[in-house]
Each structure stands twice: as structure tokens, then as C-alpha cells.
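Re: the 136-residue chain
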Amino acid sequence: MPAPSLGYALLAEIFPDPVQQPEIKSNSTSWRDAMDILNSGEADAMIFPTWMLETFGNPSHITVFTSREFAGPAILASPNVPEDVRNKVRDALLNVEGAPELAELLLELGVTKFVPASAEDYDGDQKMLSGFYGYK
């Protein structure tokens, strides 16, 4: 995940005092890899999106903390893209759940469907980055 990752930013919020932070290691290259590490016993705890824990979690996993919900990733188009093309792409994405051949793509992205979003859905999320160098 790009730095700072959402998981790391959440840990910094939960444990603002670095002395009290748990030992943070990241050896995985994907969410699925992280789940494999947890299931194998190589790690004592992990941060996962709720959807992943519900989909791939083990009944013996115990949730210690649940953060606030975040809007998912957004797909944006440049204003230079013609409006009719933007509308066609938007409509195709909003109807992708009806295409069984794309089920694996949705699973890999961790989404069940695409939903319309607005800037207000993401408003305030940037405050999480205020403690990182280069962000204000």
C-alpha cells in the first residue's frame, strides 16, 4: 500500500503516543497475503477492511477495535474527457454487478458493486494525514 497506508494512519490515531504503539510490521504485498499471514499464525494481529474479514476471516479471529467507516476508492475522469464518454463509463461501472464474468474483478477490488459518490462522501478524511510529514 502507498505510504501512509490507511491502516497505518488508523494505528497512529488509535495509538498517538509512539511509546505505546504496538510493533508494526508489514511483510505482505496484498490484503489476501496479510490474511494468509494471520491465518498461519505468523502474526498476532492485523488491520483489515471489514469486508475482507467478513469474506475471508476465520471464526476464531477476535475483533479488538473497529474504526469509523470510510468511503471506498473513487474513480475519477478528467474534465477533458467528453461528457458522453464519462457518462458511458459511469453507467457501465454502476451496472457491473450484473456481469457475472466480472465477479472476480469485484472480489479482487473488495467491492460488491460501484455506487455513485460525491466530494461530500470524502469530506474530512484528509484530517487523518495531518500528523504525517508534508501534510497539513
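Residues 108 and 119 are 25 Å apart (CA to CA).
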